[in-house]
Amino acid sequence: MKPKDIIWCIALGAIVLLTGNCSLFTEPVDYNTDVKPILNRKCISCHGGVKQSAGFSLLSRDLALSETESEKPAIIPGSASESEFIRRLTLKDPEERMPLGGEPLTQEEINILTKWVDQGAQWGLHWAYKPLTKEPEVLQMGSQNEKSFIDIAIDQKLSELDLKQNASAEKSDLLRRVSFDLIGMPAPADVQQAFLEDELSYEDLIDRLLSMPSFGEKWASMWLDVARYADSKGFEKDRSRDIWRYRDYLIRSFNQDKPYDDFIIEQLAGDMLENPSQDQLIATGFHRNTPTNDEGGTDNEEYRVKAVMDRVNTTWEGILGTTMACVQCHGHPYDPFPHEDYYESYAFFNNTRDADTEKDYPLLNFLDSLDEQQLQKLTNWIETVDEEEKAAELKDFVYVSQPIIYSIETDELVNAALYDTKYLGFRQNGTARIPDVNLSGKEVMWINLYSHVHNGRLSIFKDSLDGELLAEQKFNRKSQGYELVEIDLPETEGYHDIYFKYSSNQLSPDMDRGLSVNWFYFGEAFPGNPSQERTAMWKQFESLVNGNHESTLIMTENPEDRQRKTFVFDRGNWQIHAAKVEPGTPGVLPPMEEGARKDRLGYARWIASPANPLTSRTYVNRVWEQIFGMGIVRTVEDLGSQGDKPTHPDLLDQLAYKFANDYEWSTKRLLKSIMASSAYRQSSMASEEKIDKDPYNQFLSRGPRNRLTAEQIRDQALFVSDLLVPKMYGPPVKPYQPDGIWNTPYNNEKWVMSEGEDRYRRAIYTMIKRTSIYPAMETFDMASRQLCTSRRIDSNTPLQALVTLNDPAFVEISEAIGLQILNAKSVEEGIDKVYFSAMNKKIHPKKLAILHQLYEETKADSNRENAEEIAALTVANAIINLDDFLNK
Amino acid sequence: MKKIINEYKLKKSELNTRRLFLKTAGLSMGALALNTILPGCTQNTVSKAPIDLNPLSPRSPHFAAKAKSVIYIHMAGAPSQFELFENKPVLNQLNGQDCPPSLLEGKRFAFIRGVPKMLGSQAQFEQVGESGAWVSDRLPHFKQVADEVSFIRGLHTDQFNHAPAQIMMHTGSAIIGRPSLGSWATYGLGSVNQNLPGFVVLTSGGANPDAGKQVWGNGFLPSVYQGVHCRSNGDPVLFLNDPEEMPRNIRKKSIDAINDVNALTYEEFNDPETVARIAQYEMAYRMQMSVPEVMDISTEPEYIHELYGTQPGKESFANNALLARKLVEKGVRFIQLFDWGWDSHGVSRMGALELGFINKCRETDKPVAALLLDLKQRGLLDETLVIWGGEFGRTPMQENRNGVKQIYKGRDHHPSAFTIWMAGGGIKKGASYGETDEIGYDVVSEKSSIHDVHATILNQLGFDHEKFTFDFQGRPFRLTDVEGHVIKKIIA
Q: Is CATH 3.30.1490.20 correct for A382-548?
């Protein structure tokens, strides 16, 4: 068959499958399968969600049947002959004929549309938005033998192509496949042996691998791409960011088999759960992985808005399989999401406390044991002078320090400035304002500040600089570090602007700052009556609040009295507000439950409900893609009408239904169910016929054979060389990287190679700097982690060859493997052993002969003393470069 | 290496690989890349097109291209147009006066606060060449070649911070994650030299551009179209050099052995990717020889070193300019030069218009002029499009960071109007497009956008920017999004 024929064959096959092999002229026309593709391709770019040329849009039935600019509807349901929509397709005059300026529709396409209008021009709900039901009919019709529902679906499609699944893969190949799919590297030697020697059944093997801690490391890698996780902030300076505890949370979650609904709720709104655990707070790092910009001169609100938009886009793409990014500027061009839908989603995310501050607030602090003791003392004391609740509240303040008002929220600055657009600084007679603060019940304000000179004075006024003097604070001495100052406020009701005025007799008008402020807090007074003890405890509190703790980025919600309003942004421009919107979910999907909270937590619960048809479809498709290399819907990021159609729609639906119901959102049960299928276990041998009929293996006519991921290539090499250190968790590590890779402006952070065992950790622990990804991994198609990445596109390039051939990290690994070869009884046995450790089988004699010859030739060529070592290194280096090794 | 796989099998498999590659990369079945790229190609004519073997093999654009290669010189940090190409006598008269409030209303600045003072040019201008273009005395060498270029004087952007503005300049969007101009070009045209990367990036000035690798990133295009950052120190391309222990002949033997084993694997699984891998390893081996050769400027004759002011072995813009010419000669499609350090705010010596800026001009003026002359004398300028510019302009006001007068002379970021130039590759000689008001604050006529610049560059490469698309996230994406007009006035 010629390539052209292959394409046609598949295209025709697809049409046959989709239309159920029926004639279009006797059966009803189906909107989704027959009509929508034509509209999307030929009409909707001018008559859709973005443009409505001549006042005509085909996005929904309501719109399409309404009056156009010609004052009559273009579609008359039931009468194609009266419908302008049809007439315009057939005209000869190129000025009149639609599509304007494009190729005319084919006769077949016109027939479909004509028939569709004659049949009443019914719109249909796109498959992905339809509710999931217990048992899709088609899979029930299959034979009631032991075949898994997966194989029933796969076989049905294959039989239509006149193909059959392959026989089961060799045990060794299957072991390799399962190991990489579950733990991301070869199975440990004991597991390998037990399985190969039939001591461990296939099912037990899967259970064994599922229970290994390395399972979490493999599957967390997948989610890190969705979460656009990185260890740096993203723009310009791209300084490091400590959020690795979130990565560790993912590893733990997969290992615990945390139900996917809880997993989603914790990540989207863990902070809003009742008494959130430390882990639930860390989980909210999911949406704190947005890039922030510390570049001087940036508008922090602009980057806060960008981050919120990114959260909307990531939530929709990563969890709901829907591309929402285009809806931020206009209605969805192809799918039923009007412009407002975007901002109704946005509203759920628009009340978090993060604001593109340089310190990446809000943070969850981790105190060392000494600080913990101090905190305990402090809370014990508070309990003696105040309520337990007060103690708990101040304890939380030490951990999270919220809700505070950042100095970047001030305005009307005169003789004052946001230095480097980050920190408020007052010069002589400097003034500033915090707009609209609720003073009801606020006894004091705390200011986190630094006094640069002696004898400063800060006066605080209500509503204007001429207004009521609320308080005055003196700074007798220069600060030694950031201080926390408590200032009493008179009892005041309601919302007021707070004005500040600063002066010092030590400052001349042209001198620099006298006072810098990091943040403000309005609230109840620190407990206790004035006493030496209270002063000491305040000092303790201050030192804990300002202490240099380890921390991780988390979400917290704005307090009731500082809620942001959300507006539609005109054409996506955040500075031009259109209509105000309330939080809400798109009309095309099932609504939130009655009485559900209309906030981020309520939204998270709506997403993680079995009633949401997108959540489980998206996740099972993602897991399928991880295993087979291609999703049931290839476009994992978009299940909408412009995405690919599912190759096995009923299978996708059944898996999705089972996952959210029968499997109780358990990833491990989902994996077991997929891996039990013969489709998964079959050999990956590809016959000519299969390559012709199923070139991309979309229909699973053979087992999956895919290149290892960037992480797996490193992990496997470390594993085979015995250099791998299985230590889990903790701050990112820096294995070998050539000098001069990190060369970021205004950032003197250096890549200093980790010492000792940290050099040989699994790839998931490697430091990820957004503007400069670890090169060996970047070359193997690692996601750039700037945005949510639903799937990596594998490439096959000469630069990849250079990495595994020459990267000193891989050369070092080759050296270690070379020694194993030399330490074996013979070189041949050594090669075989190394090969076996990753491939679970003896190397083919022909392959062995080639590698052995390479060894001999290299040894003979070298006149150096260590000719054997060099020869062994060369062979070891060749082994880790083999196609066998680079694929699973 | 003995050929284990016969030619037939190879071709067939590579074809499959190519198709699989394009498929997984986001192109739908009915629209292979060729279909997207070649206008009016129906499915029938596509299948008759010559078999396309590899994602980087040379491809024809929509129409006959004027430019075969592009050298994009980006002065990262945004050089001041008022000290280089924009002669504004009225601004000079206003020097030191308060900025009128009308210029400040409703504007956002990166650092200017309150009322800044106007700042006249810190350089002297004269009209040069037949075109009579105004060029400042900061660029004595450029004056000699000014007739070769077309200026775009009315360019504007919507970003006023470096990183996003650079991303905008190179990807057409301030949203991160879009493919860069060079990636688009390589995706559309492939590479004529399979032993060198198709898209090469060279950096100088002591730091990478503020936007990091985004500005040569592949975005949603396959990573094979990403720019390859070649370095002045260490391996010119990462991991190009074999381990110390391994002589060339052994590397050859080892690659042959790897490929021999892989050929056996291919027989086993029939996986087209395996055949592609064999080809990639062979290419890697060839690259190991050809890259050091092209990256070595020490073999250039003395008069060339004098022309550019190059010193082999040093990290410098001059060396990169010379390398750019060598790479163009070898058929590299897209070369980006980034020179960092042009952010003249006046808050430090380096960032002072009267100090650091002058040094930056000295470092780059001679090599830029040399590059144009050198390309011309080799007959390459006609088919090489050279672009020079920053990511935005500078204010006609003196920066008063934090509301305070600065010690040095400097200007804030200014997205509303700036100047870039283009030369060669079918661009008119000595033309000028766009005009700003008498103080260079706003564009008064022939305003152009970054999308217009991209449309023009693609046009010179033979692409209709409106038809040059890639399907991603359910819609066809363009470099120019939904905007952009070719700037016809500067096209020869």
A: no
